[in-house]
Amino acid sequence: MSDSETGFGKGCHLHLIDGSAYIFRAYHALPPLTRKSDGLPVGAVAGFCNMLWRYLGENGNSSDAPTHAAVIFDYSSKTFRNDIYDLYKANRPELPEDLRPQFPLTRDATRAFNLSCIEVQDYEADDIIATLARQAREAGGRVTIISSDKDLMQLVGGGVEMLDAMKNKRIGIDEVIEKFGVAPDRVVDVQALAGDSVDNIPGAPGIGVKTAALLINEYGDLDSLLARAEEIKQPKRRQTLIDHADQIRMSRRLVLLDENTPLDFTLNDLEVRDPDPTALVDFLNQMEFRTLTRRVADRFGTEAPALPDPAPATAPSQDSTPDMPEFSAAQYDCVRDLDTLNIWIDRIRERGYVAVDTETTSLDEMRAELVGISLCVDAGHAAYIPLAHRAGGDDLFGASALLDGQIPLEQALRALQPVLEDPAILKIGQNMKYDAKIFANLGVTVTPIDDTMLLSYALHGGLHGHGMDQLSDRYLNHQPIPIKSLLGSGKSAITFDMVGIDDATRYAAEDADITLRLWQMFKPRLHAAQVTRVYETLDRPLVPVLAQMERHGVKVDRDVLSRMSNAFAQKMAALESEIHELAGESFNVGSPKQLGEILFDKMSLQGGKKGKTGAYATGADVLEDLAAEGHDLPARVLDWRQLSKLKSTYTDALQDHIHPDTGRVHTSYVITGAVTGRLASTDPNLQNIPIRSEEGRRIRTAFVADQGNKLVALDYSQIELRILAHIAGIDSLKSAFRDGHDIHAMTASEMFGVPLDQMTPDVRRQAKAINFGVIYGISGFGLARNLRIPRAQAQAFIDTYFQRFPGIRAYMDDTVEFAKKHGRVETLFGRRIHTPEINTKGPGAGFAKRAAINAPIQGTAADIIRRAMVRLPDALAGLPARMLMQVHDELVFEVPEDSVDETINRVRAVMEAAAEPLVRLDVPLVVDAGIGDNWAQAH
DNA sequence: GGTCTCACG
DNA sequence: GACGTACGTGAGACCG
To answer: Where is the 3'-5' exonuclease domain (predicted)?
Structure first.
């Protein structure tokens, strides 16, 4: 070796890269990528190149940059160790078929990066590394071995260090001692005793690393130990060492690296050279690695060569299900280090899209903690990144300790953030609003997105639900792992952070895999189903809008609710004793069954009707009838029920929903919650806060504006009737709306021939009921019940109505006809609502008809407010107004006092013009506004 | 878990 | 001619 002043020596720094380890890691971490032009498998080469590129980037400008470097490979799987022990590494799985042809390409890649590429027949890469490390050490230089292979740890010390590139962790003497319990020079002794199942090194049966280290530390080294084996106290251990001494010695020969591998070059030949940009770009281009080629070309300022156009990102064809691998053959990786994560990130960038799923500790996004993230870019190959899994409960202290082998959450997040926020990379999820909120909590804005739940909603609204399990079963014929199987259910249920990482990987990666497959299937179908616009303008854009509303929440005054709860409790107690007295016995007023028996059996009141379950009906309508006949008990029960409802559902339950940190209530809107296009609000439902009764309405006073702010509520006036007038083309209704007339009074006047100036409240009330009935698909029975009039009279009203407004009848008939023919109806904006029951016979037929009649009206109104909501963030830009709630035809905002007027002006303008320009309604949309310190005032 | 009841638009 | 029915939701309580 050259010790001359010009050659390798003191001050020099040699990097030895374990190339074979790189290749296997790249292969197993990446989907089976092939070269577009000829199908040559190149996935491992791609990963390998990415790693080398990153290696150069990290070391190029570092003050600790290597002066010399080499990439070392295994020549073949057969080495001199097979002559020592024919079973050495005999349990290794067969080399994958598509990996072997990539071996020569990785050598080419190394040379293209202008790195020395080294392999020696009959020797392992580890022997070459050992030899070069020894030479460098003896020459007085430093060595960094880039590998995490424990078999190389025997080389550490005397200026030799290892670098675990995955964990970006240096391995020095201390780390080796931590791992093996002995210094590097005794590592082979420990390994010889402990053996190694991966390399099929027998060692001493029953002795592991811990015991081996104990023994070596006690006896000094392996030879001394074996020589003095008789002295070992434990009989079994003593016998093992005596019986297997030869096997142990052989094991040591297997693990001991050969520091004298014959080499036909010197360290001086390994001097670092800059890559030749042209050669490198040429090679990458040949491999057809688009992203990396461009990146390298950019870096060196060379022209990226022209490449043929890639296949479109959305490869699946229009009319056929894309070929997908079987789920049984799917590969789900667990990503435990940054290097592997970066491989996935590169893969995502290469593709331009990725299916993402988060696993958390709660379904409530405001309380949920991120536990892990899964990714998928190719059907059948997904990854799970565990981040916050914790030890199970057995260990007294372990319960809160993070498990090892997880990338620190913050690091993983910062690595993923550029991808999640990259406008050129599509993030695909199932119910992305959930995941987007989880990421938003961590400061990451996920955009742009696609959502398989919303795709299904646009495509299949009315046909079935859009949960992932359901979609997977129906469209992929695959039943995903039930979450219950991991978490259990009921009281003993655990949170996801307590799930083992292996189980979690299978579950979470599968979810991302399923999501990607559903997306590949659904996305190309939007056009054929003519719902692209619905999805892209009405549904998908709502995700960020709702996410922000939900995260912001609405301030709720706990004291107001608490005081009301107490008041309700007192009143209920008084009513309860009164009711028991009237009944002559004590019973559970809240039990419809017991109440029915009291009313109709014990008290023998008339009108007792049993439903299909054999229980008496005791609904409000029944009790009201009885009360009207002068019975006190049902009247008291009605009062009690109202209070009970208000207390349990609102004043009590709402308090539990006040977030401890924000002091606000954060609902969750379900975009696919109603088939018509309406939203649904859950946990809690803020769309059914009382208003009709005076007592209930007071609950709204607990919904307050923050200091210095006002609540502003804007709602569409009569929007569904206006839409009906437009769709059915009723001229008289349209002109009444245009002229701003009282629509119910006008209807009454038309129907009953009463002049407007002589209109009575009662006649108007009846007309109003008819107007609403029409929207719901009117029936004589329903109207009769609603108005409490004889059915014949109700039917007469309806007949008159249809005579006066024949367009309504025509609309209803046409709509049902359309539904029967196409199995669906549509809103003015093209939303399709399927009506699979429309052709069934029997009692269901009436239901389906009325639903079909109602859906285009309710749905069009829902579409309109969706359009307004999507436009509002831009329209309110620069204003401090916050949108808080949506209640079907109403939007509620929180606004600093001095911005109230401007906010109302802008919101009203957006809401009133929300149908345009796509639809020009023949009637104006009118929006009423209210302002207050609380929601009751604002309405 | 199904049924009943009731809160909203 | 009889049969049940207003449309769309979510949640709490009861009960088997």
So the answer is: 332-527
